[in-house]
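From: lab user (bench 3)
To: helpdesk
Subject: output format question, protein + adenosine monophosphate

Hello, I'm new to running complex predictions and I'm not sure whether the block I got back is the full result or only part of it. Here's what I submitted:
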Amino acid sequence: MPLQTLGLNARRHNSPMNAVSEPFQIHHTGLAWHNQFHRLGSDFYTALAPQALPAPYWVGRSLAVADLLGLPHEQLQSDALLQALAGNQPISGTQPLASVYSGHQFGQWAGQLGDGRACLLGEANGLEVQLKGSGLTPYSRMGDGRAVLRSSIREFLCSEAMHGLGIATTRALCVVGSDEEVARESLETAAVVTRVAPSFIRFGHFEHFAARNQLAQLKTLADYVIARYYPDCQTAVTLNANPYANLLQQVTGRTAIMVAHWQAVGFCHGVMNTDNMSILGLTIDYGPFQFLDAYDPGHICNHTDRGGRYAFARQPDIAHWNLYALAQALLPLIEDQALALQALDSFKPVFERVWLQLMRAKLGLPDAVRDEDQALTADLLKLLAQDRVDYAIFWRRLSHAVANQHFAPVRDLFLDRPAFDAWQMRYAERLVTADHGQAAALMLKINPKYVLRNYLGEMAIEAVKAKDFSQVANLLMLLEHPFDEHPAFASQAGFPPDWASQIEISCSS
Ligand code: AMP
Ligand code: MG
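Helpdesk reply: Thanks, we reran it on our side. This is the complete output you should expect:
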């Protein structure tokens, strides 16, 4: 009887390689594994190994993430690691598991979800290492436990792009692909992303135990998160010295900062369900995300999101809503509703402060904040929206225009030129005392030349389907350093082609 029929808990590494005559091999990465999440105990997860994926091949690799883990670069060339990260060989020191969580999806309580296609290998160098797309788990529900190549490449590139932009995010070590077919709207092939983060704990982990009234487990989880990631909550004197209220306030602050960065850079997440919200304020679970092409506050990047719940401009309010769901889950520990509400109150002021700070930097306003800055920014965004101006190109051109005091290339982006001229007069006045060289230098470090537009991802994905991996590598290189000029790649910083607006990305991936 094949081992898998013994049930998921009993799943062992049974790759075709091992099943034939090869001795059962364990891969040694040389990393020291300390699997702290595993120590929480079996209420929090199901221990199980990843499912074997036949004939894997490398699709993309990040040396920067290898460095974070302390993984020697040669390993990212080795067949042994390739097999291990495809789920075909166990890794010495890991204790693989699928964690359980619940959550609110599109505003509705969805009940138990969990790692339906992910497997946490363990923790090395203070970072959790997780395989996404690694096969069935007890939480797979109707799914097949797999991730498709297309979405895996998008997640890999976007994780590293967000990091390159200075935005808090989970990271991605690599993508391995296979010709194994998986059925979505059409037949596609499977892939596994190796993700890396200090923790993959989500709001939904807390909601899970609160909804079941498992208060001991809820407390264990909160105490673990505080001790590991928010130790100053233990001794904070704010919020009646309540550690759980302080935890909520700190998560609120980090989430507000993360979303402020999304809004400033023009990033649309697409599925801000509470199970896709990191307790560390990291951007997590890249699905139908999009960097805006034309500026449109109402833009909906998720084809499945018919009502536009997660439209670009709604993201800050949705983040705040999700924090209410977290507060509700933490309430049995906080034991004081007024205190929980007080902790949540920090969302708006933190978001507004950080957002304005980022927008002022994008405009190159170097000195102290003035009252007029808010209106200058808001009026500009109105013009960008009215004329559907390309967001990234606008900011990059504005940065160069400030440097050389030649605004025609920016003006050319607008249909309503008199309106732009009027705004530009106000802007010039605001910058009159500034050192233009200094302002432009600041702007060129916050207004990226390269963003992961959907069509760029799409072209790299098509190349990979033809087994050409060079475009993924080139795009990764650009996105790791998105503020540098890279003149040889300037064509990838231009306007999107007409077909870009036809790309439809949905939740099913
Ligand atoms: P997502 O919308 O990708 O955040 O997924 C929501 C939930 O569905 C999570 O519990 C996922 O683990 C699960 N899920 C998504 N896709 C699959 C799949 N192909 N197989 C099993 N579970 C999945
Ligand atoms: Mg998810």
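A quick orientation on your result: The longest helix spans residues 243-265. Let us know if anything else is unclear.
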